[in-house]
């Protein structure tokens, strides 16, 4: 929607006598030429010229207008628009994300040390529905009031309530959130159209002498940390070696137990084999003894069957016949006779004993 503009046209120049234009007619003609030339040349995005008729609102912006210094409620979207030259002024206002960089912010700490924040970035956005209200109250450079100046104030407030150690090291990671909360709190209360999305604070610049002290402290702290880590490594290595030794001892003990059990098993197997061999030997010897006993019994029975009077007399005669000594004298026949009589009596007794035993066996069988 175009801003309201006057529709009055310049009056036509009166005709001059003699067929030539007068000075007023030349001025009007020149004005028309200038206006036509300005109408065909669109204005630049951020120009504040009030001479152009056609202007362009870039993407991400909205167009705002002033007429006679008064802000109009008319807000235009991106694109080409027309306005009254010289009467209506135009300004594009960014309504997407923008990053404002606030540089060189000096502040004093609680201990009186002067430090300087080289750069602080504030990511913010102006809500489209609050453009008229924000510009009406704070102008086009609203961010000077609620971002640039506010950052200076909040940083000084923060530094004055904290020591250098806190600002530079201890709570430095909290400055971003504290600045964001402080900015958004006041913007929500006084300029609700401004939305603070994030704040990025760089490390402040401190005096060189103090910075060297911090560097030395950091070096010493690093050395201590390295010593602690080295000690942890040594302890871990010792623990690892201990575990390896325990594992090796357990493995050796396990192997020893296995070998001992193996040897015991071998001895038990050898004892079982020896016992089996002993039993086999005893059984064999018993069989041999039984065989010898049986053979002796059979031989004895055979001998009993052979000991007949006739067989004994035959053996006696053969023994006498094999005698190589011959005795002479009148006593020899008597001796021979006596011996024979003795042997005959002996044989008779033996024959009777054998006959009695056979009789007893026959009775038992009956």
From TrEMBL:
GO cellular component, one term: endoplasmic reticulum membrane
UniProt membrane topology term: Single-pass type II membrane protein
Keywords assigned: Endoplasmic reticulum, Glycoprotein, Membrane, Signal-anchor, Transmembrane, Transmembrane helix
Listed transmembrane segments: 20-41
Chief localization: endoplasmic reticulum
GO BP field: SREBP signaling pathway
InterPro entries: Band_7, Band_7/SPFH_dom_sf, Erlin1/2
Occurrences of domain Band (ranges): 52-218
Keyword Secreted recorded: no
SMART domains: PHB
Compartments it resides in: Endoplasmic reticulum membrane
SUPFAM superfamilies found in the cross-reference section: Band 7/SPFH domain
An MF annotation (GO) of this entry: cholesterol binding
Domain of life according to the entry: Eukaryota
Pfam families: Band_7
Protein family membership: Belongs to the band 7/mec-2 family.
Protein known as: Band 7 domain-containing protein
Lineage start: Eukaryota, Viridiplantae, Streptophyta, Embryophyta, Tracheophyta
């Amino acid at each position: 929607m175009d801003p309201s503009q006057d529709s009055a046209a310049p009056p036509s120049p009166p005709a001059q006598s003699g067929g030539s234009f007068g000075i007023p007619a030349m001025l009007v003609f020149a004005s028309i030429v200038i206006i036509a030339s300005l109408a065909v040349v669109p204005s630049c995005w951020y120009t504040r010229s009030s001479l152009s008729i056609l202007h362009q609102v870039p993407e991400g912006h909205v167009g705002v207008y002033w007429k006679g210094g008064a802000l109009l409620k008319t807000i235009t979207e991106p694109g080409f628009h027309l306005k009254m030259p010289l009467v209506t002024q135009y300004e594009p206002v960014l309504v997407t994300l923008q990053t404002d960089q606030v540089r060189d912010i000096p502040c004093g700490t609680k201990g009186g040390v002067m430090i300087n924040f080289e750069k602080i970035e504030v990511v913010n956005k102006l809500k489209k529905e609050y453009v008229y209200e924000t510009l009406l109250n704070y102008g086009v450079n609203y961010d000077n009031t609620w971002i640039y100046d506010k950052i200076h104030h909040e940083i000084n407030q923060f530094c004055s309530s904290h020591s250098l150690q806190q600002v530079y090291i201890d709570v430095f990671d909290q400055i971003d959130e504290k600045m964001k909360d402080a900015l958004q709190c006041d913007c929500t209360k006084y300029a609700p159209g401004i939305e603070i999305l994030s704040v990025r604070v760089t490390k402040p610049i401190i005096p060189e002498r103090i910075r060297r002290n911090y560097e030395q402290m950091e070096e010493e702290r690093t050395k201590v940390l390295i010593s602690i880590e080295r000690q942890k490594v040594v302890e871990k290595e010792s623990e690892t070696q201990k575990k390896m030794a325990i594992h090796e001892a357990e493995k050796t003990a396990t192997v020893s137990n296995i070998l001992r059990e193996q040897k015991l098993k071998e001895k038990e197997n050898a004892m079982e084999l020896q016992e089996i061999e002993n039993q086999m030997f005893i059984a064999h010897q018993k069989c041999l003894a039984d065989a010898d006993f049986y053979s002796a019994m059979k031989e004895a029975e055979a001998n009993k069957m052979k000991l007949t009077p006739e067989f004994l007399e035959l053996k006696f005669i053969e023994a006498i016949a094999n005698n190589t000594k011959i005795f002479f004298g009148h006593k020899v026949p008597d001796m021979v006779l006596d011996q024979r009589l003795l042997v005959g009596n002996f044989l008779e007794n033996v024959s009777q004993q054998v006959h009695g035993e056979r009789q007893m066996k026959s009775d038992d069988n009956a």
